[in-house]
Description:
The structure holds 3 protein chains of 3 kinds.
Chain A: H1 5-8, H2 14-36, E1 48-49, E2 59-61, H3 78-82, E3 88-93, E4 100-107, H4 116-120, E5 127-129, E6 143-144, H5 146-151, E7 163-164
Antiparallel strand pairs in A: 1-7, 2-5, 3-4, 4-6
Chain B: H1 15-25, H2 29-45, E1 50-51, H3 58-66, E2 88-92, H4 100-109, E3 115-119, H5 120-125, E4 148-150, H6 157-172, H7 176-188
Parallel strand pairs in B: 1-2, 2-3, 3-4
Helix pairs in contact in B: 1-7, 2-6, 3-6
Chain C: E1 8-12, E2 24-30, E3 33-40, H1 48-52, H2 57-67, H3 73-88, H4 94-122, H5 126-146, E4 156-157, E5 160-161, H6 169-192, H7 195-201, H8 209-214, H9 220-224, H10 231-234, H11 255-278, E6 298-306, E7 309-317, E8 323-329, H12 331-337, H13 339-343, H14 351-358, H15 362-366
Antiparallel strand pairs in C: 1-2, 2-3, 4-5, 6-7, 7-8
Amino acid sequence: MSVQPAETDGKKGLVEQAWQAAVGLVVGLKSTLRTMFEPKATVIYPLEKINVSNRWHGLLALPIDPETDNDKCIICFQCERVCPDRCIHIEATGKGKDRVLTRFDIEMDKCCYCGLCVEVCPTEAIVFVPHYEASTYNRANLLYDLDDLHRAAPKEPIATGVVKVRRQVGGTR
Amino acid sequence: MSTDPKAIPRSTVMPLDRALEVIDALPGGGAVLTKVEDVLNWGRAASVWPLTFGLACCAIEMMQFMATRFDADRVGIIPRGTPRQADCIIVAGRATIKIAPIVRRLWEQMPEPKYVVSMGSCATCGGPFYYDNYSILKGIDQVIPVDVYVPGCPPRPEALYEGFLKLQEKIRKEPFLRRRIAAAAQAGS
Amino acid sequence: MALRTEELILNMGPQHPSTHGVLRLIVTLDGENIVDAQPDIGYLHSSVEKMMEARTYLQNIALVDRGMDYLTAMSNEEVWVLAVERLAKIEVPERAKSIRTIMLELQRISSHLIWWGTFGIDLGAFTAFLWAMRERERIMDLFEASTGGRLHHVYFRIGGVNEDLPEGWTDRVAEFCDYFLARLPEYDDLITGNPIFQARTKGVGVLPLSTAIAMGASGPVARASGLSYDVRKAHPYEVYDRVSFDIPVRTAGDCFARYEVRMEEMRQSVRIIRQCLEHLPAGEIRSKVQVALKVPKGEVYARTESPRGDLGIYLVGDGSDKPYRVKIRAPAFSNLYALTEMMKGWKVADVIAILGSIDIVLSDVDR
């Protein structure tokens, strides 16, 4: 069963094997050398940021509508129902048109960023934000309440194209 | 293997710590120690070597993070194959109840000071596998203490990068010499 | 006097840089020769099949991405929506079918690239990993622009796809195809033609055809042993019956044959993508399906060709909006089953080469 490679190559001499290995090495090194002079693929992350697609499933937010100065949520509970991770929690008081949100929590640590809530929302109240920088020392910070979700709604993506940004806290010193 | 965190000595007092205790007691010694600590912390923050331990999906983004485009090597994040050489463990992915003791053992095998980055929803709290599930651990912080949580499912490599920058910031501010002195004083008293 | 020998049992993993996840191999050694190799699985068992019974058909799309083979999220979505569509008798628009095929083939390339890179690392070539990741990032960019996710997309829906392709996306894919085909000869220079690589893979870990069939191996592992079987040809789904492509088959059954089959599959994937782009029909991308879809009573088995092999889902519906029972037929599990046969009689140094060549994903094995 076990046909060792050394035996199959046994007919060739040791010198020939060494020569072949050397040739293979040179051919490989030639391609790596060619790659060395190609444009660099690396992004110097804290200083440069690559473009995030506007469909990117980033953090969730409830953007403030400038006309009404409030979010567009009509408290239909559809997102809460469709969420596969059950990480959206909504509570409201009042009846009919006077209904107001008392609680709109998203557990960002439990969220799987699938986008079903964004898809079912009839008023586009809940949206994906092209942001991803939310790491934290404390897990409790990842429970986003209504204020956090209002605040998390930014106006523009984190970067458009490879841009230079100001040196941030925690960058390489 | 004990899982009681108190049963494991967090750090052993070495003769050097005794010497530090003496220096700290000298007039002006505290200021010198702070400067030394700053330099040491700068060095430590610039070489966080994580353990290559991929559990699930996030491991693929961790590979991207260490590969061509994001190139973690340039801020001193060099993956190591063995816990004995690692400073930091990236828990990348969901941990089952079967793997949890092994993650704990790997963490125990790492030398002090050691850090844990919890990458993604599953490692943070079970994520999509939180409900109706009998086999996934509800968060890796039930087993090992976590320093930085990176949300995402899976997080982008940049998000993990940001988590590491946060970790470096934490290391830079850490009064680890003071902690050793306190440990020495406690052991001595 | 005869030398007294005894067998040594060596545990590889679960934490091992080359086990591709959390696989534990219990290898019985006689000196350096492998007498037996038993994989110990279950370290990533996430009880997906059980969880799917508690989630609606739509929510399960998000779950199969993560719970099954995470390298090929699209294939998982595909097999799931295919099963549901067949049971509920939902028509899919032509454009959605073509888009799905493009996505599946892009996913196949990206999955094979990960395998190529990690196989390179396993055999000591780090450059392969860096190059594979460079190309993969481009595919990730394409995915991000169209689906919004890099690894997990939740893009396929029951009866179509979520969003239409963004503007200029097809041109970017065509550009990527040209770029990628130009890169493949470099890969051959670096790894395929390398005598050291060939010495470590040629003739190593031979899986005879009869054993491959007996063990239920599928995909590139079976095709490298001479079994010319591909679900895309045998049971066509989406638009695979309208595109022309070849099934690469080798008869050697060793690591190098499996390597060659996968390299050729990437070329064929590019060929399929180009044909789909050429004949991409206009029109609807999604038929009307309600969110809480109720699937009639009955059972169905859907099978697709994932990059790892024959991926199937057996679905039982009970008339409610949640499945009654789901069983996943995972290709990586069957391929891992054949591992023991491949490893017997080889040296301990070949373990990593053989393990890398069957391209297992533990999430697919354990589910």
